[in-house]
């Protein structure tokens, strides 16, 4: 699993959008089957995934947003430390993206609220909404 994580992060950092998609899919699979591996590198994983939310190839942002949702579902309160940055990025997608990406971002925000500590979710939403 550790090797799979390193490969996934390498794919996400590639310039080829299809390889980025493959890397994001690998992160989703790791979240489902080996979430403990992601917990150890959570900051790095979240930075890699959130950096793809603004990718110009629309399949990549959609996949990144869905991957973030999977991370919230499987890692729950472990994602508390990443809520501020993820909320900021997701709200940008809700406000300024094609409809299918907006819908995915809205869904992921809902998933976030359901799975992290309520106070963290509320603070992040209020802080990001004010800016």
Automatic annotation (TrEMBL):
Which GO BP terms sit in this record?
microtubule cytoskeleton organization
GO MF entries: microtubule binding
Tell me the InterPro entries matching this sequence: ARM-like, ARM-type_fold, CLASP_N_dom
Domain CLASP N-terminal: start-end pairs: 12-123
SUPFAM superfamilies for the chain: ARM repeat
UniProt GO cellular component terms? cilium; cytoplasmic microtubule
Identify this protein by name: TGRM2 protein
Organism name: Melanocharis versteri (Fan-tailed berrypecker)
The lineage, from the top, is: Eukaryota, Metazoa, Chordata, Craniata, Vertebrata
